[in-house]
Design a protein that fits this description.
This is Polysaccharide lyase 14 domain-containing protein. By secondary structure, this protein is mainly beta. It has helices at residues 24-27, 42-49, 58-61, 67-70; strands spanning 10-11, 16-17, 28-32, 52-56, 62-65, 76-81, 96-101, 110-119, 128-137, 151-159, 164-170, 173-174, 177-178, 191-198, 207-213, 216-224, 236-241, 256-268. It is built from four helices and 18 strands. It is globular. The model is unreliable at 1-8 (pLDDT under 50).
Length: 270
């Protein structure tokens, strides 16, 4: 099964709506809640607190936040986007990324991820940027082709004036904007993100992705082809955050930062 790739910037289809279900954290069982260690550097806090690989930007652009600094009673991470940066492939490196496998998700065909994000007060969203989400396999991104056998990713994006959207890399939908403007990210305060993925049967286009923001249902995308083989399942967190897109119009005009905390993974109870 290999649907024709959609190259339009935004996806407009009857397969996009609003979830009827309650937030996935209320229906699934929490399995794993990694958090940064007490290491002084953000890089070490990530390496010690998450099962990570393929990291970038964590040495230069990530600081550790203690529980008092987050105000959440638990530690977090502050990611800096230096002035003039956007996508790592486009300009000097801004933001950061790492991949964290969750053993609790091994073989999972359904999973739920929750985390909290806080954009600094007055954050200039420019044209947009990336936010974390779930992935499987080799987590395609950056213009990669998706074949249904090697991997998928399902990140979020912020857009102009803080509009939110889903940003899938799945079969036939590679880097397409889904549900743009269904919610808006505030600045200067924590906001919770919950993402549920239900993988498709390998011979059908029946996969689902859902989002809740602060517990409010905001987006459901149906008829997704994540995979064409049963061996491909949900592996963990694709932590990916930077401005861009490519090109000067995407780059942050000044040093800015966003904070991340309270990552949790869930799978169905039975």
């Amino acid at each position: 099964m290999a649907p024709v790739a959609v190259h339009a910037e935004q996806l407009d289809t009857d397969a996009v709506g609003i979830p009827d279900e309650s937030a996935c954290s209320t229906r699934y069982t929490e399995r794993y809640a990694p958090q940064p260690s007490d290491a002084d550097s953000g890089h070490d806090a990530i390496r010690e607190g998450f099962d990570t690989h393929r990291h970038w930007g964590t040495r230069d652009n990530v600081d550790h936040l203690d529980a008092q600094q987050t105000g959440l009673g638990k530690p977090g991470l502050r990611v800096t986007y230096p002035a003039g940066t956007s996508s790592p492939s486009d300009s000097e490196e801004g933001g950061a990324g790492f991949y964290a496998r969750a053993e609790a998700l091994e073989g999972a065909e359904r999973a739920c991820l929750s985390y909290q994000v806080r954009f600094e007060s007055g954050f200039d969203f420019v044209k947009g940027g990336k936010l974390p989400g779930l992935y499987g396999g080799d987590s395609p991104s950056g213009g990669d082709k998706v074949d249904g056998e090697s991997g998928f990713s399902m990140r979020l994006m912020w857009r102009e004036q803080g509009q939110g959207e889903l940003y899938p890399y799945v079969v036939g939908l590679e880097g397409v904007s889904v549900g743009r403007g269904n919610w808006t990210f505030p600045t200067g305060e924590w906001i919770s993100v919950e993402q549920e993925l239900i993988l498709n049967d390998p011979d059908e286009a029946n996969g689902v992705a859902r989002l809740w923001i602060d517990g409010r249902p905001v987006l459901e995308q149906r008829d997704i082809v994540y995979r064409t083989t049963p061996e491909l399942t949900i592996d963990g967190l694709m932590f990916s955050t930077f401005f861009g897109g490519n090109g000067k119009e995407w780059r942050t005009p000044r040093d800015q930062h966003a904070d991340f905390a309270d990552f949790r993974f869930y799978t169905p109870t039975s």
